[in-house]
Write a structure and sequence with these properties.
two-stranded antiparallel ribbon; two-stranded antiparallel sheet; 4 strands
């Protein structure tokens, strides 16, 4: 069986036999397509590629999902333009907000940020964009609420210091 893979402009290129794909150095996350698959699918989820190209690796449906969504639904139509980069995940910012500013908002930001990359890799670009927007919103709320609380605390300490000197 032969498969298409995206080129550097995310346009389908091929078809290639599995041996040719192996020579091209595809990774388990490389999206592949053929008529039988019907949708762009990570190479590791195609049994023929998982065994021939990657050795005796279990394909993704039989491996534990690790808490992330399953990639059973691909939203790219064959021949459509696939985005090259995932949306901003806000993961680092969410972790920093959790550690230094506001724990509850930061935790929600981390949860939303963790789903951005998995949704993008599954082909759900709109879901990844939505998760990115949500992660950004919660991270910003946590950051600004942390600044407001810090400023109020400093004002409180200054007022107590001035009142104590009277």
């Amino acid at each position: 069986m032969k498969y298409y893979i995206p080129d550097s402009n995310n346009q389908p290129q091929g078809p290639f036999a599995p041996e040719e794909l192996k020579a091209r150095g595809i990774t388990p996350d490389t999206l592949v397509y053929n008529e039988q698959l019907g949708n762009w699918t990570p190479a590791i989820q195609v049994q023929e590629l998982a065994t021939l190209v990657f050795g005796n690796i279990q394909n993704a449906p039989s491996a534990p999902a690790g808490g992330f969504q399953s990639c059973n639904q691909q939203t790219y139509a064959p021949g459509s333009q696939m985005p090259q980069m995932p949306p901003k995940s806000w993961l680092v910012e969410s972790i920093l907000v959790t550690l230094f500013c506001c724990l509850p908002f930061g935790i929600v930001g981390i949860i939303k940020a963790a789903s951005v990359d998995s949704k993008f890799r599954c082909g759900d670009y709109e879901g990844a964009q939505q998760a990115s927007a949500e992660a950004g919103k919660w991270t910003k709320w946590g950051f600004f609420s942390g600044i407001i609380v810090s400023v109020l605390y400093i004002l409180f300490v200054v007022v107590l210091g001035v009142a104590g000197n009277l």
